[in-house]
């Protein structure tokens, strides 16, 4: 297990659509452990594999006071409603912006053990983090939702996903 440096824009891996994980073997388990270590070292809420240079469909999320969880090959089952949220990203350090996210998300994927899981989240940090991290594995960053660079606000280093 190791904390791996987080890739930042304009690194091209952040713009690629990540590949599906065909089978969950020891290399994927090691990747997951490295992702959790990297996320924690950067004080993040979530991390997608491309953010550490691995173009695979794996995300990890750790909401405060909860155990981290893993989704392999996640995809949306449902997204509904809209809400404004302030968002930042470990791959776009020093900036935040207000963007529109779904109010409710339902996501399915595989756990690190390879078992099917389904997660439903509404109007909370988990819903936002799921949408943010799944965007990452599709080559999309939160800044893509900003109409103008003027909407980005410079901030000191803060936890984000």
Keywords:
single chain; alpha+beta; five-stranded antiparallel sheet; three-stranded antiparallel sheet; 2 helices
Helix content: 10-25%
Radius of gyration: 15 Å
Taking strands numbered 1, 2, ... along the chain, how are they ordered across the largest sheet?
A: 1-2-3-6-7
Number of helices: 2
* Element pattern in H and E: HEEEEEEEHE
Mean pLDDT: 95
How many independent structural domains? Answer: 1
In the CATH hierarchy, what is the superfamily? Peptide deformylase
Principal-axis shape equals globular
Tell me what the CATH architecture is: Alpha-Beta Complex
Secondary structural class: alpha+beta
What name does the CATH topology carry? Peptide Deformylase
The major pleated sheet works out as: 5 strands, antiparallel
CATH uppermost class: Alpha Beta
Descriptive account of the structure:
The chain has two helices and eight strands. With 161 residues, the chain is an alpha+beta fold. The protein has one domain: Peptide Deformylase, CATH 3.90.45.10. The strands form two sheets. It has a five-stranded antiparallel beta sheet, with helices on both faces. A three-stranded antiparallel beta sheet has the order 4-5-8, with no helix packed on it. Strand 6 (104-110) and strand 7 (116-122) form a beta hairpin. The mean pLDDT is 95.
């Amino acid at each position: 297990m190791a904390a791996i440096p987080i890739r930042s824009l304009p690194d091209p891996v952040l713009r690629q659509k990540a590949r599906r994980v065909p089978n969950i073997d020891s290399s994927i388990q090691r990747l997951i452990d490295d992702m959790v270590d990297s996320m924690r070292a950067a004080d993040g809420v979530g991390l997608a594999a491309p953010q550490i240079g691995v173009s695979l469909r794996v995300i990890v999320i750790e909401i405060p006071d909860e155990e981290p969880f893993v989704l392999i090959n996640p995809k949306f089952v449902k997204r509904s409603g809209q809400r404004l949220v302030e968002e930042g990203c470990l791959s776009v350090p020093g900036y935040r912006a207000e963007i529109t996210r779904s109010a409710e998300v339902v996501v399915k994927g595989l756990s690190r053990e390879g078992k099917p899981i389904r997660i439903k989240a509404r109007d909370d940090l988990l819903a936002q983090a799921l949408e943010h991290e799944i965007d990452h594995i599709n080559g999309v960053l939160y800044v893509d939702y900003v109409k103008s660079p003027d909407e980005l606000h410079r901030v000191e280093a803060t936890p984000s996903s």
